[in-house]
Automatic annotation (TrEMBL):
Disulfide bonds: C21-C270, C165-C208
Signal peptide (UniProt feature, chain positions): 1-18
Subunit and partners: Interacts with CD320 (via LDL-receptor class A domains).
GO biological process: cobalamin transport; cobalt ion transport
Taxonomic path: Eukaryota, Metazoa, Chordata, Craniata, Vertebrata
Keywords: Cobalt, Cobalt transport, Disulfide bond, Ion transport, Metal-binding, Secreted, Signal, Transport
Known role: Primary vitamin B12-binding and transport protein. Delivers cobalamin to cells.
Protein source organism: Neotoma lepida
GO MF: cobalamin binding; metal ion binding
Name of the protein: Transcobalamin-2
Amino acid sequence: MEPLKALLLLSGVLGALAEFCVIPQMDSQLVEKLGQHLLPWMDRISSEQLNPSIYVGLRLSSLQAGTKEDLYLHSLKLDYQQCLVGSASIDDNSDCQTKPSAGHLALYLLALRANCEFIGSQKGNRLVTQLKWFLEDEKKAIGHNHEGHPRTSYYQYSLSILALCVHQKRVHDSVVGKLLYAIEHDHHIPQGHLSVDTEAMAGLAFICLERFIFNPDLRPRITMAIETIREKILKAQTPEGNFGTVYSTPLALQFLMTSPTSGVGLGTACLKARASLQASIQGGAFQNPLMISQLLPVLNHKTYLDLIFPDCQAPRVMLAPAVEDPSPVHIPEVISVTLKVSSVLPPYKQTVFILAGSSLEDVLKMAQNIGGFTYGTQPSLSGPYLTSVLGKEVGDREFWQLLRDPDTPLLQGIADYKPQDGETIELRLVSW
Ligand code: B12
């Protein structure tokens, strides 16, 4: 056969094999249960507990919370406008108890879009300006030769670009250039591992930019970066079907579902991921409101890119509060959990006895009550984030890693992880 004919035949066969990432409907009761988990969190409207991601997730889902949802948005607006608009910059907001980070502001802008609102007013424009300043600062921190790092992370950098982009606000080429460079050179990778979440968030930002890019010179690099991210995420699929871990799979799917090109094996990979997600949901892995908020859009075939032109009239099922199952009476079982900290001198090791079903946070509290152990946390959208152990605060680009002995990093935070009987948990100070 002539080489040209053979090539055409091959590309025809590959074309036929090319697939899109489509996630078939999941059982509606399962989805509803996930939505119900969010309801109690929507009653928490103090500045510290407000979570714009919950609102975004719900609006992009097949579910609605009626007036609760409206009140939640109202609380978000009061809080963010008081805290951010009242100040000259993100770093200067003296009239606020807690300082919303740029990442929170970006999520707030997504929440406004989820309600079909465009930033247009003077107040709104100040929010946009603040986000742009944040990106400029981060760009400076990365440096001319890309030798530095953003002060926050490439995840928040990407999220901020995405938020500006869905509001069709211009992002400076040099800001986009830093993210392109990071993707091209794997600069965002904490501890040398591929962070699927960060790749996916950057990918979503690039797909949005590809639609609105003002400088056509950047287009080929953006298209290439999207392709690179797609390949990396597909490569990160585990034998069970997760892209990275079960918790990075929702954002990975958001990206793959909107990825502009089809690909060989893409559809199959997504179906496998869906099957794994379904098993994890059934097994109760999704309890954390932030995680649920990233997952719900996927189960409704939506992604953050739908916020470019959101459909605010789409019918959504009204959520009813969960009816508690009368749980069978258990005789409380006491388990033992050992807590280990080797990153301090002298090293610490203590076994605590605690009720089965307690969280790691309960274990830390118990150890603190016994004496000889102290810890500190900081609130975040994912829950309490461990920031100090035995008086040792994290330094720049350090964190207290949670591991199950001997060396398995936990996939959940201290409030969500429930240790098993006989387990040893290590808290390890590491750089990222
Ligand atoms: C960046 C990042 C990190 C950075 C944070 C430092 C920094 N300056 O940004 C580092 C590498 C240190 C990190 C650490 C951990 N992370 Co992390 N992290 C993320 C990531 C990619 C983005 C977070 C973010 O910026 N959000 C946007 C901003 C606007 O929200 P925010 O609330 O202000 O962000 C803060 C919190 O998210 C906090 N944070 C980061 N990770 C975690 C994890 C938990 C459980 C908590 C409570 C807080 C927290 O740091 C952010 C910056 O201050 C998310 C991915 C995702 N899908 O959300 C994972 C993610 C939140 N992390 C996760 C995990 C499991 C962890 C660890 C528990 C891992 C471990 N075994 O030790 C630790 C936290 C341990 C502790 N000390 O409490 C999971 C949580 C899953 C879940 N079930 O809730 C996620 C979803 C990743 C994943 N796909 O598995 N993380």
